[in-house]
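Sanity check

After download, print the first record. It should look like this:
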Amino acid sequence: MKDTTFKSRSLMPKCFFLIVLLSLSCFIFVFSKSAIFISKSGQVIQVGTGPNSEISPTLKIRPGYTSYDNYIHHQLQKTTNPKLRKIWTTRDWERKIHVFTQFFSDLKHKKLLSNESKALCVGARVGQEVEALKRVGVLDSIGLDLVPYPPLVIKGDFHHQPFDDETFDFEFSNVFDHALYPDKFVGEIQRTLKAGGICVLHVAISRRSDKYSANDLFSIHPLIKLFNGSDFVYTRKVDGFGLDTEVVFRKKNAII
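Expected structure tokens:
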């Protein structure tokens, strides 16, 4: 009887250790499938880094961000760089406006954009694309960026646009590669687009983006998957300041 009691007691620490080990393994597994970032403002941002870090083999999230604020700080290093901002507003100003004007004129010719469109440029920096829209006749245009540039660009985070549902007829962006959470980036575009509204993205497929990019895209298929509330219209090759592919979507009447 004593031997049996002794054996039972000796097994208890082993069983306890096994339970702790299994619990820890489960915790690590769950944690690896999700990330919770808390910004300085107290906003909780939770994203599944399992499916989101590789939505498909052709869309990968770059590692290294310890918090959402860390990601924002990294993006601001480029956006607030005084040398870059001087170049954007002087030497590059007219050159980029000229190129954007050609892009938007082509979209008008294809009936995807009109003078009556209410337009948003997502991640517009100092607003060359906004100015280009206005020059081709789309006067009701505004840009969104972490750093405002009045009157062309207002302050905002493209992961959480500061606009009501179904506000815009047209949205353009060439900063998809800067999205830490591509699903949120696309979700906000689809939320703020009106039914039948057009989204045009310029992305890099054939070459890698710069050190401030948060993701790498290797085909347009992940975009088609992410735009689950929109119809794929077309894609074509472009030469847009290091971005080589234009992808166009039209929002459906109802988000799936």
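If your output differs, re-run the checksum step. Summary of this record's structure: The domain at 68-251 is CATH 3.40.50.150 (Rossmann fold).
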